[in-house]
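Self-study notes.
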Amino acid sequence: MTAPLRRLGLLAPALAFLGVFFLLPLAWLFSLALREAEVPRALPRTLVALQGWSHGQPLPAPLFPAFAQDLVQAREAQTLADAARRLNYAVDGVRSTLMRAARSVSGAEQGTAFDAAYFEAIAPVLASPGFFAAVQQARGPVSAFYLLGALDLRLTSEGSVERSPPEQRLYLEVLQRTLGVSAAVTLACLLMGFPVAALLARSQGRVADLLMVLVMLPFWTSLIVRTAAWVVLLQREGLVNGLLLKLGIVGAPLDLIYNRTGVLIAMTHVLLPFMILPIYNVLKDIPPNYLRAAASLGAPPLTAFGRVYLPLAAPGIAAGALMVFILALGYYITPALVGGGGDQMLSYFVAKYTTETGNWGLAAALGAMLLLTTLALYAVSQRLSGARRLAVTA
């Protein structure tokens, strides 16, 4: 067996595990952002009756008997609730209306005429062109409904794309907030982590070991425990405010928890080791005599640092910043525990729609948007790193 085949054989179990337990579930989740299965499964006759109809035309006469028959059978098959929930995303309040209409149709006497007047008596929306336009747009098998919603866009009854009403625009603002918080945490980690990494690189013996233990210590504690500890420390009667008051730095307790300040402090603490370690890995290989050589040639300390030390440390800084930024993009637990309502990041809404409301389509769309943002940032960083390598080589 050749060497490449042996290497492939050794990698096969890991690749199989990665494909089965990561790539396939990820692909299935993201497919939910495009799939439309609820309405076709519950209202097949209604969709057949709507073929060829467009908004602005009179509703076809066979539509309402087909709609009534679908309601009865979907209620019996227990598929109506999913379809009603999906249509409720496009037409507010229609979920309970559909369930009430299904009960009414199921209990109607034989020979009842199911026409527009019958459904209008239950709720005017069930006889409106706008409702059936939403049904038609959900005919599947795929649609961009959830992807547009994640971008604060929506389909009109005529099928065109427009911005959502101002009161419904949320996710682009949340994405901007997520990027802003991640950038602020990355900058804070860089400013605090670089001196520690430089000290680690210049230390030896027991001092270096002790510093490394202190850097690695957060990894030995659960993320929830670390975040909960900040809740205790940052509250108005906590240790931080108590120390500030005792030292006379402030005259009244500061609001450090359940706001953006608490989020930045807690996330910086959690992610700081991910900045220190890559920078330290680069700095320890920089010979100390480079700075001495620059000083012997007349360079002041700041000039030597900026023109000799910092360029050599740039790969470690880039790696640490990229790692911290990408990890911060997906943070959920820390903002949820120490942040306020206006500090929640995109991952919070992904978790909310999967565990609370069951809106898997929108959760998948938001997850895809977060993943694409991460991949775009990674591609940009790789491109910049490649350009820097070319410049150094030249």
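Second protein, same conventions, sequence then structure:
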Amino acid sequence: MKQSKLIKKLELLLKQLNCRSYLHRFGPKKYKLKHHLFALILMEAYQLSLRRVEKMLEMFEIKCPTYSALCKRRKKIPTTIWQGLIKLTSGLQHERVAIDMTGFSRNNPSYHYIKRIDLKNPVKSYAKTSMMYDVDSHKVIAIEIKMKLRHETKDVKSLFGSYCRMQCLLGDKAYDVEWIHEYCFERGIRTIVPKKKNIHRGFYRKKQMKLFSEEEHHQRSNIESGFSAIKRKYGSYVSGRGINSIRSELSCKAIAHNLELKH
């Protein structure tokens, strides 16, 4: 049986990242990294469980690791591989990039069951996800996942990483911080962020505010549409418990979203 187009795409992307065929050189050479990634992305794209994705691929006679191997392997795939795949599927050049934070629920209770047991206030837990999003191509450029509550601006530098090939950065008032304006100015990036109320100081803030455009800032809302699209298509919750499992799930959602838009 011929390999699917997705496996071929993953093989090409891993080749561009200069990754080994197998995740660990001393591990068993039974399944390649592309087989694990294919199953994990398919699981998120169609909101399947680990057991169901194994059975479905076996039904179509596609080589797939067992559900237990997938569960263990997704915790060990390095963050650099996930970041590299998101970067390659989104493109290397970006004109206007929006930045914002959202949350993915860590539990998915049945509200019928909650009502039956008279649970008034179910415990709410979220995986906080900061994202950079191309408002023109509608693709995810980078994501950063944290388990604890923290301010949005603390993830800015880690989100940038090597993703500095953009012309302007769109953000809400939470990102109107002097060091963010300076960080972008030094890299030739124009910040389109509305000014906070009663804050007037800051050399780089004033410099960037001279180029502020209300019309361009309206494009920032596209990232909210991106959050909505990902949650509606691939689920608004994660099933993993550890940070590595959650990172792999959300990265697979972003990669599936980018591949669907890729022409």
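Instructor comment on the second fold: Residues 5-77 form one domain.
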